[in-house]
Amino acid sequence: MLTRDDVFSELGIGPVWRLRETPAAPCSSPLPDWDRLADAVARCTACKLHATRTQGVLGVGDHNADWLVIGEAPGADEDAQGEPFVGQAGKLLDAMLASIGLSRGDNVYITNVLKSRPPGNRNPEPDEVAACRPYLLAQIELIRPKLILALGRFAAQSLLDTDEAIARLRGRVHRFQNVPLVVTYHPAYLLRNLPDKARAWEDLCLARRTMQTL
Ligand code: URA
């Protein structure tokens, strides 16, 4: 597993030293910095997707969120606008969040496993996931979320490093980087498979119940 130092050296950004407020800690820990992270993603050429994307899409929302929502990769709308989940799937995601009393920007941060759009919305490839992983780890390091909601098969399988079917990954609490993680269906899938909305609702309830215990 990558350490924080590995992450920042892979990103090519040095640590920023900030004094902690508690006088008890004699030495402060290096913390990543949002501006540098955004800049690193904007300039990133670590995988072939940089050649075809319009822009990198880092994420959107509350930098101190308890909830971290992780999707697959930007689509055409997200690539054009520079924000995750702004198309039809994004509207459904907002409705899903609202159903458990959440909204993007307020105690929720939304990002993707990949920060660049795969051309033609093809599936992400393993080298692209590996190249993008330090950015996700840095985001988790900065946000320190209490719970991760993984949207869809691809996000769930790549975060949990498994090829188990989403049907088997739902309904229980996993961990990623020691953060509790709940799996649900991707909103784009739900737009095509309306009956599974009831299952997604169960997942959201599991996530909310889990959050209440943290
Ligand atoms: N699908 C995703 O997984 N992420 C987005 O940002 C948009 C659609």
Give a verbal description of the structure.
- The chain has 214 residues and is α/β, with parallel strands linked by helices.
- The chain has a single domain (4-212), classed as 3-Layer(aba) Sandwich (Uracil-DNA Glycosylase, subunit E).
- 42% of the residues lie in helices and 14% in strands.
- The chain has nine helices and eight strands.
- The protein has helices spanning 4-11, 34-43, 76-81, 88-99, 126-143, 152-160, 166-169, 187-192, 197-212; strands at 16-17, 30-31, 60-61, 67-71, 108-112, 147-151, 174-176, 179-184.
- It has a six-stranded mixed beta sheet with strand order 3-5-4-6-8-7, with helices on both faces. It has a two-stranded antiparallel sheet with strand order 1-2.
- Strand 7 and strand 8 (179-184) form a beta hairpin.
- Helix 1 (4-11) packs across helix 5.
- The longest helix is centred in the middle third of the chain and has 18 residues, at 126-143.
- The model is unreliable at 14-29 (pLDDT under 50).
- It binds uracil.
Gist of the model:
The chain is an alpha/beta fold and 214 residues long. It has nine helices and eight strands.
User: What share of residues is helical?
Assistant: 40-55%
Count of all domains: 1
Q: Which oligomerization state do the chains in this entry correspond to?
A: single chain
N-C termini distance: 24 Å
Query: Low-confidence parts, pLDDT < 50 over ≥5 residues?
Result: 14-29
Question: Describe the biggest sheet?
Answer: 6 strands, mixed
Return the average pLDDT rounded to an integer.
Answer: 89
The string of secondary-structure elements, in order, is HEEHEEHHEHEHHEEHH
Q: Please compute the radius of gyration using only Cα atoms.
A: 17 Å
* CATH fourth-tier homologous superfamily: Uracil-DNA glycosylase-like domain
